[in-house]
User: Which sequence fits this backbone?
């Protein structure tokens, strides 16, 4: 990692603080930004989120899916955690804390929105930052790419119905048109654009693709920081008036993150996976595609909603939590066997840049 990426937690904290300052100092600008919407989608947020997602989609080689049968156990573990465990534990924790534990601290309407934001985080498996976590644990880059690719394909089909099902359990009416529009806007279209861009760059040679990916990496993080700053600016009055809300939302999110990692990591050890597959598989299952979760929360419930705030707190929690889990994975490397990475030529991909 470069110095800029290494201190991502610091930049995220500064972006949050900067957003709060702008939200208080320039309320007119914040109001104008909040009003810049088309079909319930905020255009400014859409630009920043595309800045995050599009380079990642260019990095993903979907042709690598055909090699998944070579080592299926790590992929099966990730898919079970992402789609059969994590969404339901997130919904259960949201209900437990905001219907029972914190019931006297949060009014019912706000509790509905907090639960919804947590559910949207749980139903959106990570795409963008997976490659960073894999690289930091010396993971198998080709295998990680396969996991991300298949997760993205499944997400296109499963995100909307699974989110609607879980949101329905929380007695929240889901506008299907808005939810499906968000999936198209923030998953399908960037995916198509990424595939077309990748093909175009590969016609100029692998070196051209690698150069493009290296140059685009700061843009992804800048897009993330701008999104965080904007969302905290839009939420500035609420955050400063109710700072306890951040802590209340963070508690179940922290329990979810560490709990899912423990489940996945111990299962990987039980399955005798090599560390270069076990660590990324567990981290993929733990992290969230918070760009999509934030976008859908904004589309469904509004820029200043409790659901949007919950997903923003997910951004706040995720980076330091994932860095701590990377440290845990690296210190427990001796728990697992070693296995050479698949040759890049065999997997048809290059490692993350």
Assistant:
């Amino acid at each position: 990692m470069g110095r800029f990426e290494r201190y991502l937690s610091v930049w995220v904290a500064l972006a949050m603080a900067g957003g709060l300052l702008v939200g208080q100092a320039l309320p007119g600008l914040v109001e104008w930004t909040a009003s810049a919407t088309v079909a319930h989608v905020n255009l400014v947020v859409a630009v920043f989120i595309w800045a995050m997602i599009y380079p990642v989609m260019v990095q993903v080689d979907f042709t690598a899916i055909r090699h998944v049968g070579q080592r299926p156990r790590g992929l099966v573990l990730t898919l079970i955690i992402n789609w059969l465990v994590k969404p339901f534990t997130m919904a259960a924790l949201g209900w437990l804390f905001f219907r029972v534990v914190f019931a006297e601290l949060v009014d019912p309407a706000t509790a509905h929105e907090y639960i919804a934001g947590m559910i949207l985080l749980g139903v959106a498996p990570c795409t963008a930052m997976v490659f960073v976590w894999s690289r930091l644990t010396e993971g198998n880059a080709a295998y990680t790419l396969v996991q991300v690719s298949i997760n993205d394909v499944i997400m296109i089909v499963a995100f909307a119905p699974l989110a609607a099902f879980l949101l329905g359990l929380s007695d929240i009416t889901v506008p299907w048109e808005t939810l499906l529009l968000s999936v198209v806007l923030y998953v399908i279209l960037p995916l198509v654009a990424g595939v077309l861009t990748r093909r175009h760059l590969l016609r100029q040679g692998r070196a051209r693709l690698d150069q493009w990916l290296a140059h685009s990496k700061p843009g992804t993080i800048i897009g993330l920081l701008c999104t965080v700053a904007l969302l905290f600016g839009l939420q500035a009055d609420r955050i400063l008036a109710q700072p306890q809300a951040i802590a209340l939302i963070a508690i179940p999110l922290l329990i979810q993150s560490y709990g899912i990692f423990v489940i996945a990591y111990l299962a990987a050890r039980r399955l005798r996976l090599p560390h270069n597959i076990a660590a990324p598989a567990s981290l993929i299952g733990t992290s969230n595609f918070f760009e999509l979760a934030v976008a859908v929360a904004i589309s469904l419930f509004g820029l200043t909603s409790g659901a949007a705030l919950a997903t923003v707190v997910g951004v706040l929690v995720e980076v330091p939590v994932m860095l701590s889990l990377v440290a845990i994975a690296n210190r427990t490397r001796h728990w697992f066997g070693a296995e050479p990475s698949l040759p890049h030529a065999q997997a048809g991909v290059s490692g993350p840049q």
Q: What stands out?
A: The first strand starts at residue 37 and ends at 38. The two ends are 9 Å apart (CA to CA).
